[in-house]
Amino acid sequence: MSPLQQRLASTGLIIGVFVFWELFCLVAGISELILPRPSRIAAAFIEYAPAIWPHAWQTLYTTMVGFFFGVIIGLALGVLIGSSKLAYDTCYPLLVGISSIPKVAVVPIFVLWFGAGTVPAILTAMIICIFPIVVNVATGIATVEPELEDVMRSLKASRWETLRNVGLPRSAPYFFASLKVAVTLSFVGSVIAETVASNKGVGNMMMIASSSFNVPLVFAGLMILAVLGVALYAIFALLERRLAGWAMRKTA
Fold it and tell me: Is 198 buried (19+), middle (13-18) or exposed (0-12) by CB count in 10 A?
């Protein structure tokens, strides 16, 4: 299947889902308080657009700032853990334990430390995306073929030169793959914090809308998050193909 055919198939599937959703709600007579039709969601988006956009920009801002810092920290930890067997064996259980903590449970702690607002959302977005980056980068470096390391040692390369010339390029496909996962998780972190401890953002808007039983606006918020997530995923998928395409399986 050609790339154009794949895009057409994906577009057709998305349109088909929304058409089925619309018809199902009409035929079954489902109240919009339970499941609003896509047409009602679109109408709510148009009606509340002036109020929605500031919240959408706030969520995008907190997500990208948290993601940026999460990438820096995750990349540094991944390189450190992957390049040392001692660090890998010692730090990995701690990372797993920290990542297992529900992120909604740490939001009140961030609020206690920094107050309600943007900072807790940024920190939540940051910590939720660190783990997949660390795991992928560390795995990419730790699984370098021993033959390549033997060649570098025979050339009397230092440990840093081996890491720079072999380990980091070897981990690049893992790193770019983790970015696609991490950026979507960052949205989850931002929205979690916004629903708990913020007066701005899509999460806060959805909480206010749900308290007034404005379900179409709640679903409009979900659609905004879905569109933003897909757009950022597509951007990082493009970066992955451009910068690490050499590691991808080629199709005929």
Answer: buried
Residue in 113, 110, 115, 165 with CA at minimum distance from that of residue 141: 165
Continuous H helices in the chain: 3-28, 38-47, 49-82, 85-99, 103-114, 118-142, 146-154, 159-162, 168-197, 202-211, 215-244
Interatomic CA distance for residues 76 and 134, integer angstroms? 8
The domain ranges of the chain are 36-244
Contact between residue 193 and residue 199 where contact means Cβ atoms under 8 Å apart: no
Type of residue found at 71: V
- CB-based burial of residue 121 (10 Å sphere; 0-12 exposed, 13-18 middle, 19+ buried)? buried
Q: What is the pTM of this model?
A: 0.84
Dist CA 26 CA 143 (whole Å): 54
CATH fold for domain 36-244? MetI-like fold (1.10.3720)
Q: How far is CA 140 from CA 127, 148, 163, 174, in A?
A: 21, 14, 11, 6
The pLDDT tens digits of the residues spanning 200-241 come to 888 888 888 888 888 899 999 899 988 888 888 888 888 878
Please name the amino acid found at residue 241.
R
DSSP 250: P
